[in-house]
Amino acid sequence: MRKDRAGKGGTIINISAMAALVRIPFVPIYSATKSAVLHFSNSLGMEPTYSRTGVRVLTVCFGFTDTTILHSNKFGLFEPEQKKFLMEHLKEARMQKVDSAARGMLEVFKKGESASTWLIDADKPAEDITSSVNEAYKILSRHFTDA
């Protein structure tokens, strides 16, 4: 779909999760993969790549969504002893409905700029959190740029 390769451009929406934004000690592998999706998508959607390809890349971070995975006991925990803590965390989590998540995705598709990050959580409308993500990277990069 790349314009620089005879395509017409398009949109990619990559799915991350709140686990990419917060530290959750009992699901490190899940958190790491969702962090990778966030960073990869943001990097791929930035300039000059977007102007050259015409492919808009958006990232959605879902909060806890009431799907079968949360009820299946198939978490693949790094340490099985952590399951008790995860289950306690899930009991207190604000669970959103699947239709709320789907409505949020449509909003992201309509409004999202390339390299943007969106949060869809707790049955609220999709929220563009790009400025917060950019600020976090700016803070982290100080250690590199000040050297």
TrEMBL record:
Among Pfam families, the record links this protein to: adh_short
Q: Which InterPro entries match?
A: NAD(P)-bd_dom_sf, Sc_DH/Rdtase_CS, SDR_fam
Q: Which UniProt keywords apply?
A: Oxidoreductase
Q: Which domain of life is it from?
A: Eukaryota
Query: Matching Gene3D superfamilies, A to Z?
Result: NAD(P)-binding Rossmann-like Domain (3.40.50.720)
Reaction(s) catalyzed by this protein? Answer: resolvin D2 + NAD(+) = 7-oxoresolvin D2 + NADH + H(+); (15S)-hydroxy-(5Z,8Z,11Z,13E)-eicosatetraenoate + NAD(+) = 15-oxo-(5Z,8Z,11Z,13E)-eicosatetraenoate + NADH + H(+); resolvin E1 + NAD(+) = 18-oxo-resolvin E1 + NADH + H(+); resolvin D2 + NAD(+) = 16-oxoresolvin D2 + NADH + H(+)
**Enzyme superclass (EC):** oxidoreductase
Establish whether keyword Zinc is in the entry.
no
Q: What is its EC number?
A: 1.1.1.141, 1.1.1.232
- Stored PANTHER family: 15-HYDROXYPROSTAGLANDIN DEHYDROGENASE [NAD(+)]
- State the protein's purpose: Catalyzes the NAD-dependent dehydrogenation (oxidation) of a broad array of hydroxylated polyunsaturated fatty acids (mainly eicosanoids and docosanoids, including prostaglandins, lipoxins and resolvins), yielding their corresponding keto (oxo) metabolites. Decreases the levels of the pro-proliferative prostaglandins such as prostaglandin E2 (whose activity is increased in cancer because of an increase in the expression of cyclooxygenase 2) and generates oxo-fatty acid products that can profoundly influence cell function by abrogating pro-inflammatory cytokine expression.
What is stated as this protein's family in its record? Belongs to the short-chain dehydrogenases/reductases (SDR) family.
Q: What is this protein called?
A: 15-hydroxyprostaglandin dehydrogenase [NAD(+)]
Q: Which organism is it from?
A: Chilo suppressalis
Top-level taxonomy: Eukaryota, Metazoa, Ecdysozoa, Arthropoda, Hexapoda
